[in-house]
Amino acid sequence: xxxxxxxxxxxxxxxxxxxxxxxxxxxxxxxxxxxxxxxxxxxxxxxxxxxxxxxxxxxxxxxxxxxxxxxxxxxxxxxxxxxxxxxxxxxxxxxxxxxxxxxxxxxxxxxxxxxxxxxxxxxxxxxxxxxxxxxxxxxxxxxxxxxxxxxxxxxxxxxxxxxxxxxxxxxxxxxxxxxxxxxxxxxxxxxxxxxxxxxxxxxxxxxxxxxxxxxxxxx
Length: 219
Known about the structure:
Layout: H1 3-12, H2 16-21, H3 37-47, H4 51-59, H5 63-72, H6 80-88, H7 93-102, H8 110-118, H9 123-139, H10 145-158, H11 164-178, H12 182-196, H13 201-214
């Protein structure tokens, strides 16, 4: 499929009610068509891996086209420059998370970018840093514990960010690291307890919510 055919297919599957409903979930509908993710996944399966088409889709600025781009991009052709360009254009938490889940975590730059972006000020760039930590904890089975200990230090340092989309990503990262194995569960609980005591409404919520999930026994 070429760009024209894909856009035609996206528009055919657009739904005004779904687009209007995006606002309720905190999703920016400015460039959206209202196409559901299962439809995008089905379309991605039909297309397969296509680096050029992924770039063309991203350049349309259409919300769902960009999510689809993250699904069909060739991870072996992704550069740091491309990741930095894409992350700077994130305007919704779902686009951020989809790119991290579908593509970014698979790159050789994932650990580096998680650290780098988590220290940035721009809301969705910073969210991407912590979303990437969460996805790495969830999906990268071969990654060493020491990498996640580094993430825990960053989480503790940044836990006072009161912006909703940032604090939720920090919480997500902390919980996913703690669920990875018994050792990291103990370390994450220690961090959550320290965060809980900080003089920050955001930090208290992050710590308390993580403790509720991590305090149970794990194998």
